[in-house]
Amino acid sequence: MIFRKLVYEDLSYIYSWLDEDDYLRRGVLDEYVKKDLGYGIEVDGKIEAIGLINLIKELRYAWLLGARVRREMRRRGLGEFLTRRLIEESIRLGAQRVALSTSLDNKAVIRIAEKIGMRNPVSIIMYRLRTEYLTSYPTGLIAEGDLIDLVEKIVYSEDHYIIFIEHPYVWIPVKIINLKDLVYKDLVTICVSKDLDAITFVYKDDRGRSWTHIVRSSVVSSSYESIKTCSEIMSLDSFNGIILISNRSVLWDHYIKNIGSRDYEWGFHIFDYQQDISQF
Q: 99: burial class by Cβ within 10 Å (0-12, 13-18, 19+)?
């Protein structure tokens, strides 16, 4: 088995075995090959497994994504070999932390992650609510000045995660980013309820669509207090949805009891594995 970077000549064979609905087909794989961050495992002259590295240099953070093994080549150790080599490559590129996520039912990836030392994953649950909620609740407060400092302390202490705005589809611990810097760059707007039991972030994705991300809420109804203000400061034409995210099971149990299936458009539950590789 040979671990190497992918080149454009590899793509036709890879696409011949990738699932038809795989998101890597939507230009993602081509993009990473172009950026020189696409990798594969070559067996007998053909690429039988692939993986990508999303490198965030300013945070020295590597997000592993798009790992695939051709169906006929599974259960031969290619997945573990690929993951280990991707971590080694991340270290070579200067990363000090590496992460990957997987669905709860992907036992193969969970087994590999734990075998190579990536333990105690964070459980992230995400639902997209219907936007009718926008007109249903009173406004909250936009966090500024000292209030941002207070929000920062709260979300850092509670170990929250956020989609990193400047690198879409990457989940990172809020505590390793400069939240205040994102606010001052107008990349994130923070809204809070008056008693601070609800905190939401509003940001735009790489397509310019606005999202409201409920970061903290002790009671479901109070968490919506800040949604209307947050959405109004964005262009309503580009407002895309309310993303309700939690990595606290007790809080999520409360959400499930209060949100009916007709009130959300989609939802999923993933494990996010993070590993400090600075000492490797």
A: buried
